[in-house]
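Worked Example 4.2. Read the sequence first, then its structure tokens.
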Amino acid sequence: MSAAVSTENNSSITNGASEINIEFQNNEKLINEEYKIWKKTSPLLYDLLYSYSCEAPALSVNWLNEFSIEKNDNNENFIEAKFLMGTHSKEDQNYIKLISVLVPPTLSNKYKSDFEATQIPKNLLRSRQLNIIREWNHPGEVNKLRINQFNNLVATHTNNGDILLFDINDENCKTHKSTLKFHTKQGFGLEWNSNESKKNLLLSSSEDCKIALWDINYNEKLLSENKPINIISSHENIVNDLSWNKSIDSVFASVSDDSSYQIHDLRLASGPIIHITDAHHDPDSENNLSFPINAVEFNESVTTLFATGGSDNSIQIWDLRNPSIPLRRLLGHNDPVIGLKFHENYLLSSSIDNRVLIWDLNRLEEGEPDKRKSDYIDPCLSFMHGGHTGKIYEADWHPNLENLIVSCAEDGLLEVWRPAHLGDEYIEEEEEAEKDE
């Protein structure tokens, strides 16, 4: 190679690196500017907002069902809720942490009528609202954690494929009770069956393209090792996420990098009962590319309804009664959607674009926005949480407290928040209807 050619190649590499560096710096400036704007407007957007910087980022968060009503020194009521988080550190010791958060009593519909005053307790504003109650050592990063709400048994997905089981009721134990060995690569798909009669059933999936079904018989003592009772190998690529049907306890959905979603029924041994390929693609695109599907979630109350989130930046709403065509595409994220969570008629979505969005499914019939317009906004989009400056790892609704959400992200921030005015339009409509009557 001549010196001239070598110099030209080196110059090209240097220019390319310089352009990448400039693009990165501009992107960082944009993120910081957007965060500053959000911070200025946040007092108007939230009824509640706690933000904490963690020593190590959390990859996974999961609320516990129960909460308690407490009184402070001034005899004012407040609520103590709890959630679990798993840390993501490549150098230091990793943990599962049980964290309590103090929130105003007005978040509980069940107890709201019992309170004489609805003001936020004064001491609550001056105190530290998040406190670490307990922590358990975890070998390696906590890719995903899920709590069994019936017995407080916690399952975690590790970065080597093992599934670990923790008993958070055992106050003397500081590490896991049992190891489930099957997966040969790390994964993120993990979910307990939500039906009490099937509470022992746990699903897991990983980058080895397999789904494992476990039967965890818990009676104070866990076996040191368990074997899966069923192995499903119907996907051709990484299986990213799983979701049990909330009403039919033998049915679950799975999604994969192979661009398909599948519906499985454990009562049948003939493979998936529904297998839709190319489920995420842009119908307006000329090349009609298919994208990996990263998240799936069944609706809690509508048996046939579920949602998928893909690397095409969209969310698809599906109905099992017509499984080949989505009911609706939700458009609002600028990067791949990696997490979904239903709560009543709302859907929470998290993305690599640093945003958590809340969608109102009551507005599905209003139709998709026109993407040809630069200022298009999906009519289903109800709220955007912009409190993070890194990609969202996970967000979770509290199952019992009204519109209370926890989110964690790559920026190391852990945030507990409640959007202001979410659902107020329906309250106003009901009040107007009552006046008319």
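Now turn to a second chain, presented in exactly the same format:
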Amino acid sequence: MFSRSKSHTLSHLKARSISSLKVVWRKDPELDRAIELDKRYKQCARVVKEVLNEPGQVIPLRYLEKRRERMRLKLKAETFLNQNPGLFDVYYDRIKPKTEPVRFLRPTDRLRRFLHQERRVFLDNEPFIVSKLCKLLMMSKNKVVSADKLLHVKREFGFPNDFLVDLVPRYPEYFRLTGSPGEGKSFLELVNWNPEFAKSVIEGRAEEESERLGIRVRPSFNVQLPRGFVLKKEMREWIRDWMELDYVSPYEDVSHLDQASREMEKRSVGVFHELLSLSLHKRIPVPILGKFCDEYRFSNAFSTTFTRHSGIFYLSLKGGIETAMLREAYRGDELIDRDPLLRIKDMFVELLEDGWRQRAEQLRLKQEKVKEDMELLATKVSE
């Protein structure tokens, strides 16, 4: 990359634009598999959401079929229902009084029990949800974020569907909502700064280590380069010097920092680390992060941060979508740093697996019946 003296190389690197520092992207099959394992669960969740959003939470089957593209459902709606029993009951009703009855879908009793349990989990974890929402506002430029953007990321962070109209008004000491969500001109503003929330995962980890060891431990990122990954010498030296910079808290005012400085890069990495840490699965699609460039002072080329710091993040291309993942949160393809709100996902997966076992048992019994009938027929023919 360079053929000059070490001192000249370092000074040249420090002067270069951060965005010009390139690291070759390397595929991580285990982290890609973590995304793949959630594929079926997410598809089922999208279909359930589509039905629950209907008036009365019922929908004609043929209407659901017409929405396959919007739900990114590759199977026919009827095939999906057959493969995932336990989600919906099928019954006949009329769309209009004088029309012929057609098949409708409605949530099963099991799905309704799950929805009741989901509300219980949200209620039990409400203080945790409030702290998450405060943290998102506290990291933002003016302590205010578009309410519509927050609605768009509610599933990424585990917020209830109605958090803006139900939860937010119950905490006027923290939040002020202006405008009407859904119209593009609504904003959620932080009313009071809670210093207990202004502590990042990195800072909390350093405090725990300091208490355990009895000596002060500097806040620092956990760097875990994937096996076989090699950085060029010049990039290693830049990363080494960058790691020596003081940690910049994502909750600190950085209006004085130059956008292209190494210090601002340190702060941006801290914000990405904190956002991913607050997310349910410790990963967020890059296009979603891109919606918050203004609020969190991300540069237009912010996605290169994830490859430039490959020991902290992984940029997955699985499914044709760039997804930023937090390496330290995973062991292989298993998420080890689990959010309390993932209990909701666990319960939904249990419901799905019960249905899949039911379907497998029905198929087994059907195959046995066919086999018995064929054996009986063969016996009669031989007689």
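Notes for the reader: The first strand starts at residue 59 and ends at 60. The chain has three domains: 1-37+220-340, 40-120+344-382, 125-197.
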